[in-house]
Amino acid sequence: MLKSSFGWSRKFAVAVSAALLFGGFGSALHAAPAKDIKLYVFSSGALTIGKGILQNLAPNDPPIQIPVGFFVIKHPKGTVLFDTGNNDKIITDGSYWGPALKALNPVRTPEVAIDAQLAKIGLKPDDITYVVPSHLHLDHGGNISKFPNSTLLIQRDELKNAFWPDANTQGPYIFDDFAYLRQGLYDQVPNKGKMVQLDGDLDLFRDGTVRLKKWPGHTPGSQMLILRLANTGTLILTGDTIYFRENVEKNIPPNVILAWNPTGILRAYEYVRFLQATENAEYFTAHDPDAFKALKKAPEYYD
Ligand SMILES: [Zn+2]
């Protein structure tokens, strides 16, 4: 009896200290100076897609052109690439995407290539420390293989679903975008598949400024990035967990073919509203045409 009650109180004490520790750290980290951190916004061209696929309330709306946004964060301890756009191979190879090329009609001009985009701020692929795909669909994980010297930070569940998709979720994955990862994992080929497989959230630089947040919803292993900047404040990079601002404002999920877990997507809208209320947060999506148009693009930046 004594032993079990001691065990219980010890567990309780550990839980309380953990809460204090994380709570305490959390507040301290919020207050950490975020100076010298910059966020740059890029586009990997554009796609054309039926609006009703991204916004379930508008099933009959005609196709619209949407940007394919991706982002670079320069932090004193490393440079982070959040999403990598469409694979550059489609610029010259009309067969690489198979039927998706005709269906999505991507912009294929040379200046949308990721090297050309990064060059706007003087970066080469080898300058990227961490590549963080929000998920591995063709317009987000497309160019991950162009960063063999960077470390890929990917949710384990996303990797699993990309290689062995759940029924009816395989459509937007292009296997050859990430097939090379197996060479590093199984064949020990140097500079192939240098990655960390995550099972949850990560405070990347341990200062609270760049946090990866696992968010199953759009796909099983989607992740968002929470950025805390000195002047801009809190910013959420949503990937495809959120398509349009209107979806958040009116609680509209996408069509179920782009919602592996619709509840997860609705919870993300609630999370955005929570951070808006508590930290006056902003959020940047990858594909909202109007919202994206209004953003400062590289070489301009947010700090
Ligand atoms: Zn997308």
Structure explained in plain terms:
There is one protein chain. Strand 9 and strand 10 form a beta hairpin. The chain has 11 helices and 11 strands. The protein is an alpha/beta fold. The chain is globular, with a radius of gyration of 20 Å. The longest helix has 30 residues. The N terminus is likely disordered. Zinc ion binds next to loops.
Work out the strand percent. 15-25%
Structural class by SSE content? alpha/beta
**C-alpha end-to-end distance:** 57 Å
What share of residues is helical?
A: 25-40%
Q: What is the CATH first-level class name of the largest domain?
A: Alpha Beta
Low-pLDDT stretches: 1-29
Number of domains: 2
Number of helices: 11
Present as ligands are: zinc ion
Arithmetic mean pLDDT: 89
Got a strand count? 11
Largest sheet: 6 strands, mixed
Layout of helices and strands, plus pairs?
Blueprint (H helix, E strand, L loop, with lengths): L1 H30 L6 E13 H4 L8 E13 L2 E5 L6 H4 L6 H6 L9 H6 L10 E3 L18 E5 H8 L11 H4 L2 H6 L8 E4 L3 E2 L6 E5 L8 E7 L3 E5 L7 H5 L12 H18 L2 E3 L4 H5 L10
Parallel strand pairs: 3-4, 4-5, 5-6, 10-11
Antiparallel strand pairs: 1-2, 2-3, 7-8, 8-9, 9-10
Bound molecules: zinc ion.
The site of zinc ion (ZN) has 6 residues, from loops.
Highlighted features:
303 residues, alpha/beta, Metallo-beta-lactamase, Chain A, 2 domains, 6-stranded mixed beta sheet, 5-stranded mixed beta sheet, 11 helices, 11 strands, 21% strand, disordered N terminus, binds zinc ion
